[in-house]
Specification:
The chain has 252 residues and is of the alpha/beta class. The protein has a single domain, classed as Aldolase class I (TIM Barrel, Alpha-Beta Barrel), CATH 3.20.20. 47% of the residues lie in helices and 15% in strands. An 8-stranded parallel barrel has the order 1-2-3-4-5-6-7-8, surrounded by 7 helices. Strand 5, helix 6 and strand 6 form a beta-alpha-beta unit. Helix 10 packs across helix 11. It is globular and about 45 Å long. The chain starts with a strand and ends with a helix. The mean pLDDT is 94.
């Protein structure tokens, strides 16, 4: 089964609109985990416009004390400040994204070859700390081999173009590209690391209850999806617990 990691950035963004402590990121995380979420994802940006550094450590405490076995995934650009934060928090997984600090959200994957000098030492440092590393990539069959060559354990497919496609024929083109990239990831992992089971595939961005099942059908061994915006929007209708249960069914 594909694991569901609930991204809490939108919850934190809502909280930060006022100088009050609600909605509580930790309390919403607890509701999601109690409803069956397999993990929690946050992307602490340098300006703390949504997730704050204090949130990161409060979530670490929640997960380690009350939900052993559930995963914590930290997303971010591999700057020195972020790498130090990851080492201190020690999540199960770090997902490196090529975001400019001013970006509203992630909107493209890595050009890995052009950023090898940034990525290779950062990945080595994280793996020395015992943290699994995923790289955010576009739907590009050449990207997984590059990711494996710099030491990544997983890739996360940027599904924004697929999720944002309003016409079925356009969505089908993007879905085919994602499937081809996932196929390339399996091969790249086996070729780069014989006997270690291949490069696993995560996915995220603009996934929802409608477009997630076709993605899962196209990539049956999808390891994890990280979903925040759609889950938060659906939670306004169904409540967070029921929404998580709906997404767990979509992941099955």
């Amino acid at each position: 089964m594909t694991h569901l990691s609930v991204n809490l950035n939108a919850i934190a963004f809502l909280r930060n609109r006022r100088s009050v402590p609600w909605p509580s990121v930790v309390d919403i995380a607890r509701i999601a985990l109690d409803a069956g979420a397999d993990g929690i994802t946050v992307h602490p940006r340098p300006d703390e416009r949504h997730i704050r550094r204090t949130d990161v450590f409060e979530l670490v405490t929640l997960l380690r004390q009350d939900y052993p076995g559930r995963e914590f995934n930290l997303e971010g650009y591999p700057s020195e400040d972020f790498l130090t934060l990851v080492e201190r928090a020690h999540p199960d997984q770090v997902t490196f994204v090529p975001d400019d600090p001013l970006q509203a959200t992630s909107d493209h994957g890595w050009n890995i070859e052009a950023n090898r000098a940034v990525l290779a030492p950062a990945i080595s440092r994280m793996k020395a700390a015992g943290i699994r590393v995923s790289l955010f990539i576009n739907a590009d069959p050449s990207a997984p081999a590059a990711a494996a060559s710099v030491g990544a354990d997983r890739v996360e497919l940027y599904t924004g173009p697929y999720g944002g496609a309003l016409k079925a024929e356009v969505q089908a083109v993007h879905l085919a590209a994602l499937k081809e990239t996932a196929d390339a990831a399996r091969a790249a992992g086996h070729n780069a690391r014989p006997g270690q089971g291949g490069l696993q595939v995560n996915a995220g961005h603009d996934l929802n209850l409608i477009n997630l099942p076709p993605l899962k059908h196209a990539i049956p061994d999808l390891a994890e999806v990280s979903i925040g915006h759609a889950i938060t929007a659906d939670a306004l209708v169904y409540g967070m617990a029921e929404t998580v249960r709906h997404y767990k069914v979509a992941c099955s």
